[in-house]
Specification:
seven-stranded mixed sheet; alpha/beta; six-stranded parallel sheet; about 30% helix; globular
Amino acid sequence: MKALVYENYAPDDDYKKILKIVEIPNPKPKPNEVVFKVVVAGLNHDDIWGMRGKPIQIPMPHISGTDAAGEVVAVGSDVTTIKVGDRVVSHGNLSCRVCVDCTDGREYDCRHRKVWGFQTGPLWGGYCEYTHLPEVNVVKIPDNVSYEDAAAASMTMTTSWHMLVGRAKIRPGQTVLIMGGGSGMGTFGIQIAKLYGCDVIATASGSKLEECLKLGADFAVDHRKEDWNKQVFAISKDLAKQKHTSPGIDVIFEHIGGSHWNKELALLKYGATLVTTGATTGYDVASDLRHIFFKGTNILGSTQGTRAELEAGIHWMSKGKIKSIVDSIYTFENAVEAHTKMLKGNLFGKILMKPA
């Protein structure tokens, strides 16, 4: 079968040097696994980190791809809930399923956890014609949800759901600030917060503000402007008058890091919450502790989410309450262009790739 493979790192982000389409054997399922034909797979920033070899080194030769959707073509002897012909999407959080964390419903905290298509291998990910996963790491796709929508949702929707619902425990009527609303994460963050009846302020670059509003955000602010935080606070003051409460933000959905960090902390109400995952613009930040201890701020870390959270999001997709935003679709032959576009960040929603 055809697979997108690299055998060396590209710390200079010159993907053309390393990405190659090669022929490798078709996978055969272990007793607890399913094999599915990949129809489409979604790009994530861990693909870039993998090719850089930072922050961790990964198994070589390597196949990336954590979000893949397709049709099951073979099942192992112990598989009971999935059959040949089922439409499935990956849940890329591989955990042991037997430790205290896993059996407590926190599989994302499993010490043996690996992100499929990032930490796995050699040659085990989603950017290939056929791939394999444990039965517990695939979720059936309803007939009215496309492969493209499911693949675009796999990691980003699950992570966004876990951040807002699982960790921050958002409630109707709260004012929620979605940072980076034009990203794959942000587009789902906006929709999940609206699903829960929140007032949503999204930030994005100027060209993406109108799209955030179309997606459901009540307000959109250009976070590339120096005074973006003042605009957000002014909006929160107007909302506070309507709600007869104090100005500020109840929950901040943070995944971009960098220079915005202390401005975000200052925007929070007393006793409010900032939930963070990832740091695409930089992870080494300085915190003004006064914004944390004096206001009783809750700072929550979050990574990926549970299989059940992916199923919950897929359910609401089937009801038309959440949708995937696909920026563009490439073939494996155009993988260099796809990854370069993701690196530059000039997109709204998810980038997908198909084998052909």
